[in-house]
Amino acid sequence: MELEKPLLGLCPIGKFVFSNEDAIKHKCLIQKKLRELDIPFVDLEGVLEDGLVKDQQHVNKAVNHFLSARIDCLFVPHCNFGTEGAVGMIAKKINVPTLLWGPRDESPLPNGTRLRDSLCGLFASSKVLRKLNVPFTYIENCHIDETAFAEGVDTFIRAANISKIFRNGIRIGQVGQRINFFWSTIINESELLDKFNIEIVPIDMVDFIKASKERAVKSRAEYQEEVKELRRRYEVEGFDDDEPLINLRGARDEFLAIGRERELDGFAFQPFMSFINEMGAYGNMVASEVSEEYAFANETDILGAVSCIMLQKANFNTNPTFLAEFTVRHPDKTNGVLLWHGSAPFSMCHHEEKIKLGYHWILSSQLSGMVHLRLKDGPFTVARFDGEQGEYKLAVGEGKSIDGPKTLNSYLWVEVDNWARWERILIEGPYMHHIAMSYGNFSKALVEACKYIPCLEPVVLNDRI
Question: Among 11, 119, 368, 447, which has the highest number of CB atoms less than 10 A from its own CB?
Fold first, then answer.
């Protein structure tokens, strides 16, 4: 997966009544720090004198420059005070996530004067942003080398990347209709398009199966070599011949081709029973492989796919996501629970485990192809985008992996801070048991992103993050 970060517009703010030299000094320190943090940015060098906004007359030049650069988010550091009207107008006109911060002020000079009043300027600018109904992220007034600054910028950039996908539009490929008895995955497609710019792209299951089989025939020699390697690397049970596995290779490549051709961000897939019967195998391996590149939700869970996309954007697309389920409590730990489902990305497999392709864990089917693996250890974040009656929420939480008894399919025993709280929030809704999972800590970024996604309310599962 390719690293992706949003483009930041660096809009340093000064004011004529304080030291211009000190403002330039802090502007340069900020530029240096952003480079150290590997944040891509464009600034106002060569556009405005000293690369600083110091007057309301500078608004249009700054706005036109940033719009031409197609920035994804805006940073308005107050380098000596703050030209509050300019801050408000620039942020309002550009209309992207906005970050507000200023360096902590030093002691007054021996004669009692001060080079800057950055904190005071922040109070003024924040009032104007509120007055103009501009949502913004705030980093506490601190020195640029303090942890609070680096962590605050990181949270903001991730939040901006999450909200960017909603502005650009999310496209989910739906392969097959909703499963009849899965009422929990019923959605309001029109509302998703109107409120969140989420477009569902229908893909006929008959056409998909036909195209997958055609690929299997056309690339048979290549796929046979893949199957040989697959049998060598994995524990393969129940496949007397290679034909079903070759069919699954074709289905995998058909998913990937559709994703590229239709510019999709993810898939919602109806995995049974038409696909299984036609392929001669369960399709979990296909889901595991495709989810290395695209958000992938089995059981036609459209909102699950959106949840996975949000997590992918939070981690800058560096790690895949897994649409898991909360299933059973840990037998010994009060705050332990099982994260489980059919098809985690293979890259999530524990280093001590060997992936198994075998029979269904509970159904007495003669067909094979279910994925069985234990997930690797580490801290994780979960997220669930969901809604009912026109009200949408994003539940987010963090926890850690723990030891637990062996089970089947893709699984990880986890521990959270207060499972009783998590359980009550998730049960009382509007959520279902599917929840997107990725390794790392992204709750703060997901919560912050909701500021920039209209009609979406964040709900924190942890007691605190």
Answer: 11
Q: What is the CA radius of gyration of the chain?
A: 25
Give residue-wise pLDDT tens across range 325-381.
999 999 999 999 999 999 999 999 999 999 999 999 998 889 999 999 999 999 999
Per-residue pLDDT for 272 more than 90? no
Is residue 7 within 8 Å of 40, Cβ to Cβ? yes
- Asked if 437 contacts 341 with a C-beta cutoff of 8 angstroms, the reply is no
**Residues 357/289, Cβ–Cβ less than 8 Å:** no
Give the phi and the psi of residue 11 in degrees, each rounded to 5. Answer: -120, 80
Ranges of beta strands (E only) in 129-251 are 136-138, 170-175, 198-203, 235-236
pTM reported for the whole predicted model: 0.96
pLDDT of residue 115: 66
Distance CA 92, CA 59 (A): 11
- Look up residue 464 and give its amino acid: R
Q: How buried is 406 (Cβ within 10 angstroms: 0-12 exposed, 13-18 middle, 19+ buried)?
A: exposed
Rounded CA separation 112/90 (Å): 34
Q: Give the separation between CA 71 and CA 94, rounded to whole angstroms.
A: 9
pLDDT at 111 over 90: no
E strand intervals along 102-185:
136-138, 170-175
Question: CB-based burial of residue 196 (10 Å sphere; 0-12 exposed, 13-18 middle, 19+ buried)?
Answer: buried
What pLDDT is recorded for position 16?
72
pLDDT confidence of residue 295 = 98
Taking the domains of the chain in order of start, what are their residue ranges? 8-168, 170-460
Answer whether 87's CB lies under 8 Å from 102's CB: no
What's the topology of domain 170-460?
L-fucose Isomerase; Chain A, domain 2 (3.40.275)
Please state, in angstroms and as integers, the Cα–Cα distance from residue 241 to each residue in 82, 230, 275, 283, 326, following that order: 72, 13, 18, 16, 35
